[in-house]
Amino acid sequence: MATMKDVAKLAKVGVGSVSRVLNDAPGVKPATKKRVEAAIKKLGYVRDDYARGLKTNRSQTIALILPTVWHPFFSEFAYYIEQSLYRRQYKLLLCNSSEDAEKELQYIKMVTQNKVDGIVGITYSAIDQYVSSNLPFVSIDRYFTEDISYVTSDNFIGGKIAAKELLVRGVKHPAFISGYSKFPNETTKRRDGFKSVIAESGLEMDEIYVPEPIENLEQLVDGLFKRQPSIDGIFCINDLMVLQIEPILKAKGIRVPEDVQIIGYDGFNLTSEQPLGISTIVQPVELMAETAIQILMNKIYDHYRPSEIEVLPVKYRNGNTTRPII
Amino acid sequence: MATMKDVAKLAKVGVGSVSRVLNDAPGVKPATKKRVEAAIKKLGYVRDDYARGLKTNRSQTIALILPTVWHPFFSEFAYYIEQSLYRRQYKLLLCNSSEDAEKELQYIKMVTQNKVDGIVGITYSAIDQYVSSNLPFVSIDRYFTEDISYVTSDNFIGGKIAAKELLVRGVKHPAFISGYSKFPNETTKRRDGFKSVIAESGLEMDEIYVPEPIENLEQLVDGLFKRQPSIDGIFCINDLMVLQIEPILKAKGIRVPEDVQIIGYDGFNLTSEQPLGISTIVQPVELMAETAIQILMNKIYDHYRPSEIEVLPVKYRNGNTTRPII
Predict the structure, then answer these.
(1) Fewest C-beta atoms under 10 Å: which of A26, A139, B51, B135?
(2) Do residue A86 and residue A134 come from a single domain?
(3) In chain B, what residues touch A274 (CB-CB under 8 Å)?
(4) Residue of A66, A68, A75 to mutate, testing the B interface (most B Cβ within 10 Å of its Cβ)
(5) Using CB atoms and an 8 Å cut-off, which of residues 274-313 of chain A contact chain B?
(6) DSSP SS3 for B94
(7) Coiled-coil ranges per the record (chains A, B) (predicted)?
(8) A191 with A252, same domain?
């Protein structure tokens, strides 16, 4: 019976190209596609889904690397990842990396030892060189290379929506507040999207944009409002930042949302039935988890599967930190 | 070299009794202890910690069964469990049981298959018959039998503290609000402790105490305050209940803490740096996690180890849902 290798040999292409054709993946030259298809026909190659998945020492276990599960967004994400795995009879190993690259590498090593079949990682550590295209690895919110699959919410659009929602609520002097990681990640696009809309509006904009971890947020906010007392709208990089900013403003006698309106990002809920009440850009957490596991399974059961990138839609959810539309 | 079995034979006791003597466990008759110690001396038995742990197919993995990790208390607990395991070079399998006994049994089965070495479980399902004294299992907040180890915070004292803290803050008409599980667990002692102090004080007390899940909390609270408008202090079974009660009272024009003071239980924080601000009874989550893992490891490395019970201290943390002491 013909194998994928036979097809590749006959078509004079790599096995990866055959896989790409079989998976209807983008980036295959029409000429290549034609040759591969001809070879498939000639050899009578039949794709054997079972054989593709045949690896006797599969652990039926996936590792999830998070900065920490002790965080409402990450715990919701971990919840959905586990649900998604359970439906596939897979188990979940949980790793709180605390951004410790050494710890993350232990889990990556477990893949090569067949102790886990793959990894979903929300990671802001220097592990670039260890994450290769061979590794069944799906990154969340961080781009490594084009060979590494990743899933993210549409951070740029999210930033744009936040700006628009503040503007239609009468904000005249917007500000952005965020820390940034030294490792590039998708969340910086929230700022880009926000700034693009504000720039179009012609309004003045200010920001607190400093390296993480932010030690002196209170002084930074104090300084910002002393310099720019007319600020009346804030977009925070995430909901936790909103929770940190609120008491600081309150202590300064600034009322939310009467004096300053605030929009966060994440849309996390304390439990499945307990939202926080913040006006926010909601990430589709359940969909992100399901998509990440689907992509990971594709890779585990088809080693030649090309990387996949999914940018998922976000939406605005009204809460108690903004005023009605004017 | 003499083994524990040799000691048991010579002393004419069971191996369990020898283990209990070696581990200085309670419940050993003085006569038994004397015989065992004599046998140990005569045989020159030396306890071999390494041999006790010798089991070639150890997985170095522990399963944590939680109702759901998507909950601030459970995610904090999961965080500390993983930290505690990591220090011992163990990995954590996470199971959100959603109180699904079938799912929990899968993990219990994994112990017998040597896929995991033991289980820490916060479980309110009907798994009694599957949790035996042979299983390396530590229960949190639920008592199965005296053979099953469990760790809990001091719920009774916690309830007493909540009552006392309300009383010293001028509460004259206290109430208790809680749902209850059909599976007996330690958290009901919060109510017992609270009631014991209120009974001593001679004050009238009311309560909402209904089976979980509570579908119609709003109507229940509404009915309670219509019948008993003088209620001015509430002890909620946990912090989430406080978060649910607050908006209901607000909608009724009842101010917290001016009109009604509220104390919760758990003391959870959204992240390691973000407390909630509720006045509450704080559980020692990190200590509970570390204690549970220590007890579990004792059992894994010493099969004959008797069950251990740890009731850990709680404390009151002042927040914004109570008034100053009068």
Answers:
(1) A26
(2) yes
(3) 240, 243-244
(4) A75
(5) 274
(6) strand
(7) none
(8) yes
Q: In chain A, what residues touch B78 (CB-CB under 8 Å)?
A: 69-70, 75, 94
**B76 near A CB under 8 A:** yes
Verify that B83 and B25 share a domain, yes or no: no
Q: What percent of chain B has pLDDT over 90?
A: 63
Asked if residue A141 and residue A83 are part of one domain, the reply reads yes
Chain B CB within 8 Å of residue A271 CB = yes
- Residue A53 — very low, low, confident or very high, per pLDDT cuts 50/70/90? very low
**Domain for residue A317, yes or no?**
no
| Residue B13 in domain | yes
**Quick check: is A83 in a domain?**
yes
**pLDDT greater than 70 at residue B47:** no
B49 pLDDT higher than 50 = no
How far is residue B90's CA from residue B87's CA, in Å, rounded to a whole number? 7
Residues above pLDDT 90, as percent of chain A: 63
Is the CB of residue A179 less than 8 Å from the CB of residue A213?
Answer: yes
A175 has pLDDT over 90:
yes
Which CATH number belongs to the domain containing residue B240 in this structure? Answer: 3.40.50.2300
At B123, list the tokens: 């479980």
CATH code for the domain of B38:
1.10.260.40
User: pLDDT value at position A52?
Assistant: 45
Of A93, A269, A271, the CB nearest to B93: A93
Residues B164 and B138 in one domain: no
Average confidence (pLDDT) over A65-76: 95
Do B114 and B232 belong to one domain?
no
Residue B255 lies in a domain: yes
Beta strands B274-275 and B269-271, pairing class: antiparallel
Range of the structural domain that residue A18 is part of? 4-47
Name, in order, each residue with C-beta under 8 angstroms of B180's C-beta and a sequence gap of 6 or more.
B188, B209, B210, B211, B212
Residue A50: pLDDT band (50, 70, 90) is very low
How sure is the predictor about B184, in pLDDT bands with cuts at 50, 70 and 90? confident
Task: Strands of A45-180 (E only): list them.
Answer: 61-66, 91-96, 118-121, 137-140, 149-153, 174-180
Contacts of B8 (CB under 8 A, 6+ apart): B14, B15, B17, B18, B36, B39
For chain B, state the CA radius of gyration.
23
Q: Residue A302 is inside which H or E element, if any? A: none
Number of domains in chain B: 3
